[in-house]
Write a structure and sequence with these properties.
By secondary structure, this protein is mainly α. The chain is 56% helix and 3% strand. The longest helix is centred in the N-terminal third of the chain and has 17 residues.
Length: 216
């Protein structure tokens, strides 16, 4: 019986714990360490992060972060349709889903991992406020080789505190998130700069959609 309950109880306990305690390490950190990368991480409270970073990350990753319940089912259905039509299995992940994945799961694309991601996301959304989900995401996301969290990212790429990042720097960091091992916020390609420019415009457009992360 204990083995049957473990997949339910263990995630529930960890999600409850991480509601208040910074996660010490993630599977991705261990995988990258095994690949020869270091682990540079320090915790930065959400209130110590530039609002430009918050707007840029939501604008780049999940415009509807404040309004959905963790899973964007329309995007999931679209991804399934694309896959069944012969296309590549794509993420369709919200920030909540990416937080669950980064916190508990491994990188890669498979239906098994996607199912676990959705399952764990429902836990996060049930037990954490949106501010906590975003705070954890910003602190465990990979921002470069061996860099985890907005604190090390801000120092490494722009030699400043995350509270002092400006709009342009925030946008460059946000657009590097999908592939931080090959995209550099501090040494951006022309394409990355162009994408960051689009995100800066979007940051203004979604201003009215950010109420859930402006404090509780």
């Amino acid at each position: 019986m204990g083995l049957l309950l473990a997949p339910i109880v263990v995630p529930l306990v960890l999600v409850g714990l991480y509601r208040f305690v910074p996660p010490p390490i993630t599977p991705l950190m261990l995988i990258r360490a095994g690949e020869g990368h270091g682990i540079e991480q320090d915790w930065v409270p959400l209130e110590a992060v530039s609002p430009h970073v918050i707007a840029a990350v939501i604008g780049a990753e999940d415009n509807l972060f404040c309004s959905h319940s963790g899973v964007d089912w329309d995007s999931v259905h679209d991804a399934i349709d694309t896959y069944e039509s012969g296309g590549r299995l794509r993420g369709a992940s919200t920030i909540s889903m990416q937080t669950a994945k980064n916190l508990f799961l491994w990188p890669g694309r498979s239906w098994v991992r996607k199912g676990l991601e959705v399952y764990l996301t429902l836990y996060l959304e049930a037990l954490w406020p949106k501010t906590r989900i975003l705070e954890v995401y910003l602190n465990i996301a990979e921002w470069g080789p061996g860099l985890y969290g907005i604190g090390p990212a801000a120092r490494h790429h722009f030699d400043r505190s995350p509270s002092l990042l400006n709009r342009g720097e925030a946008a460059l960091l946000a657009v590097s998130l999908p592939n931080p091992l090959t995209r550099s916020a501090s040494q951006p390609t022309g394409a990355l700069r162009q994408r960051a420019s689009v995100i800066q415009q979007r940051m203004v457009q979604i201003e009215s959609l950010l109420d859930c992360v402006r404090g509780e």
